[in-house]
Amino acid sequence: MPVTLTYEMPELVLAAPLDIHRSSVLPEWVDWNDHMNVAFYVLAFDQASGAFMRNMGLGRSYVDSKLGMTFVLETHVTYDRELRQGAPMRFSTQLLDRDAKRVHLHHEMFHAEQGYLAATNEVIVMNIDFTTRRSAPWPVQAADRLERIWQAHKGLPRPARAGRVMGLGRPPASQAPHRSPGKAASS
Amino acid sequence: MKLPPYPIVDLDLGAPLDRHRATVLKDWIDWNGHMNVGYYVVAFDKATDVLCEQFGCSWEYTREKIGMTFVLEAHVTYDREVREGDPLRITTQLLDYDAKRLHYMHKMHHGSEGYLAATNELMLINIDYASRRSAPWPDWAMPRIERMAAVHAALPRPEQAGRLIGIKRK
Lengths: 187, 170
Fold this sequence. Notes:
Chain A is α+β, with helices and mostly antiparallel strands.
């Protein structure tokens, strides 16, 4: 039986892609290369996933009311360009697929002022029952919202970086200047 | 052969490389009561430092303003939760390399219970310090990469390598 949510739901945003999350590069996210460290891109993207989940009605209240949680199963990041301390970020999120308990999201992270693509993140998020800590169907209202969001997103073109498989034989698709594809020396 | 202006560790030819240990810190825990997805990558990135140290391309490499290493792409599978204080053991397998890149896979295990907690496949590129653009591995690194890759080539390819993300339907 899917859970019914009892707390007040935020206003549903149906604009596609979802373009509401903003943040900036914190000092503690910068590493010895003087740019945002790889891990904190993932943290920043996780907050963008959080914004998507809130739009489904599954924000902090979902966990605080001990109804459920959402867990990331898998994530794939392309690092397209560096970001320095304090850089403002804008996130755009497209729903690529969904089922009864999972969503497949694609985030793009942009430098909010200069506009360049800094990174992309493809992610699978699954709904979790609070008590059993195992996968469970989306709560009733969340499933309803997800279907409406899907109707709004499903017509968007598929992002260029979605569905990537890593390997030296397929050089990174980025236009970033430091990425010149090398010749595979080991093959 | 050009040598770096700092000592390099003895090359560890154990396969996979099995040198990195860590503990899940309190700051790494999120409101779900487990290590947050971002901090798995913090832990994995430290294991990348340990790998690069084998090639003389870790902290001193940047401190001496010779070069840096940048991650181009990363894929993480989150296989099981870990909690605050849990010990972590991270092993690393080189999958491929070329004149300026490394393709490798980390596996994170619970240090005492042994279960697989996560995997991280990565593409890393060598960067020239001054130009901040890609450059061939330094003289001292390349033979070490070749020797490690030759030993790691005998390992079976990890089942998590080369994954495509998607909702699989039965």
